[in-house]
Known about the structure:
By secondary structure, the protein is α/β, with parallel strands linked by helices. Helix content is 39%, strand content 29%. It has 2 domains: 4-92 and 180-226, 3-Layer(aba) Sandwich (D-Maltodextrin-Binding Protein, domain 2), CATH 3.40.190.10; 94-178, Periplasmic binding protein-like II (D-Maltodextrin-Binding Protein, domain 2, 3-Layer(aba) Sandwich), CATH 3.40.190. The strands form 2 sheets. The protein has a 6-stranded mixed β-sheet, sandwiched between helices. Strand 2 and strand 3 (47-52) form a beta hairpin.
Amino acid sequence: MKPIRIALTKGRLEEKSIEMFEALGYDCSEVRNKGRRLILPVKNANIEIVLAKAADVITYVENGVCDLGVVGKDTIMEAGGTFYEVADLGFGRCKFALALPTGVNFYEGYHTRCIASKYVNVARSYFEKKNMDVDIVKIEGSVELAPILGLSDAIVDIVETGTTLRENGLVVAEEICQVSARLIVNIASMKLRKTEINELITQIESFVQEQKERRKEKEAQKEAAAQ
Ligand code: PRP
């Protein structure tokens, strides 16, 4: 039987995804010592890990060359696609926000606002819901540059710690929504490899539940310590 292929998002979500699979007992030593390799075997299971950019995780899962994927809700909201989104993994938490230079009132004046974003679809649908006509310009990375350089009035971007905004003189004007890592599954794989995939999903769900309880415990301890 060919291995189950799981596409993981490189970068931001990579470490936490590997930690999750390790916590479930999967040997990810090959992934940890990947060098420049992009497809890595899990030694103690019939699983292969594929490392890809976020949007490509969706493409590979949607087209069935990977059975499962771990990808941020931000990318899912932006790219869409046809697959099952089966679990909120609870890590990679951040939010979509509208941000702009400190001290600027976004709604002052009558000109059409220009919004820079890597997430043009998310930005468009946010302003459509507000019934507000805006110009949207796509920026591939470090979108904070756009308002600083005077290209846009504001940005729509993901904010995690807020450090990038702060260090570039920008502030959150409006929070759009929370995002976090999700587990996605190819539609055909879900039928064809039902038993293996369901087993994995069950394991992952109990990991997520455990993590949730741990977080709650920690928060309760913090609260108790603060009193
Ligand atoms: C994201 C986002 C911000 C930054 C926010 O960029 O676009 O620039 O992280 O994180 P912070 O609130 O913790 O500072 P990322 O590092 O994913 O790279 P990118 O600009 O290439 O998208």
